[in-house]
Specification:
This protein is α+β, with helices and mostly antiparallel strands and 530 residues long. 52% of the residues lie in helices and 9% in strands.
Length: 530
Amino acid sequence: VAMPVFLGDERNLIVCYSAAAEWQSFEALGWDVKCDVLDLWVVFRRLTNGLVQLNKTGQLDALATFCVQGCCKGHKTQMREMAIRGGSFTDLEKRELMDYCQQDVEDLEALHEKLLPYLDLPLDIFRSQYVITLAEMQTRGIPTDAVTYNLLIENLDLIKKELISRFDSQQMFENGHFRMGRFSDWLVRNRIPWPRTPKGRLATDSATFLDRKGLHEVIADIGELHVILGKLRRFALPVGGDARCRSSLRPFVTKTGRNAPSSTKFPFGLPRWMRGVIVAPPGKALAYIDYSQQEIAVAAALSGDDALKRSYLSGDPYLQFGIDAGLIPIGSTKETHGEEREVFKQVVLGVQYGMGANTLSRTAGVTIVAARELLKHHRKTYPVYWSWANNAPISARYYGVIKSAFGWELQVSPDMRDSTLKNFPCQSNGAEILRMACVMLREAGFEMLCTVHDAILFEFDIDSLDAKVRAAREIMTRASRIVLDGFPVSTDVDIYMPGERFLPETGKAKEIWDLVTDILERSPTNDNDQ
């Protein structure tokens, strides 16, 4: 099918709703589209971000918000299912599909007219470029070891059994299921306080287990096993016949504008050991380039706290906090003050999320008195940052909205928590940095496979690896300078050569992966020796 001429002209702009679908269709057809795009879904998502009563963002939902009658929802669903079905169509079906497409375009035109007064150009076009950049990543897909992945699927019950046998020293699980009564009894016996959900049940989410891992040596194992078994019940990676996993990255889903890919259909949303199914293909290397302590850099730049800026630029803001606060001597290193550094790390990261003394005490493994003193030291050491952070909720509630540097906005409701508003500037501007980097890298011709919070996964030819990695890191740092008014965010990189799995060389993830692969090698469904 020949590409329409207007799509090849850079001077043109196409307007659509949910550009990712259109762009993946263009790529499937082999079209080299040059024109720009305005995705009205991004515009509507920005305008309604934070409004609970407008949490649906389909095109018909957007039209209904402006009291415009669009295509009947049932008919739209029927036509989409028919189109997805494919195959040969009757003459009647062809007419129905064409009529539906015409109605869809007319609906889009009506929505465009309603949204015109609210457009934030050229930033809405920039955000739309990011959507199609992610669509191109999804089309490329993440290279996987499909054989091992299929073996894992076939042997889930055996793997669960072995994992429980290895890590459930307190016998909290029975027949693969977490027994809440046993956990409750164990907490009582060990006099461990535990939070409950609004419905009165013991909280068993991963954040709660992580927050309380310092209270008892086995809590981390219980929590990790609970999360792993929960994911193993539901996960299903969309791995194609070419051994590429194509997961939707779901941009702009969170309040802060970050991506929110499915935790069960995205390899990086699964337990860390399962990243072992990601393998660099023959002749190619994978480069995982991650912004280093991005949120600290963003906080330093936006607050204008010179002491926090110097701390970040030192290369180790955790140790530097201890030095700046006078808690450890000048010249201290990881080797000389490693334990203290881990405590300082909990402080520096925790204050970004409004962490109080009680939580800090648990996560850092210190007394509440010591936690209070550490927070006091942080306030004294970085007073400009604290003034800025405390003012964020006040300003947001006064104006009813809070925005990132490039205009991603959150509508503030009366019941919105202060911690959400305090966290918004760092997270939303971190997302802006990643968007800027991705768009710039796309324009420079880089092949990106996915984003992971504030990191990007690349695929490079071996013969150009060093030069490409160097150039990509330079662009990523340049992007941070654009968003943060000249302040740079540094990057770290991990390289995986052909055949290497996306796993650390040591640690818990590697231990579990080795256990699982040993199980798979002994599995009766493994026919490698036949």
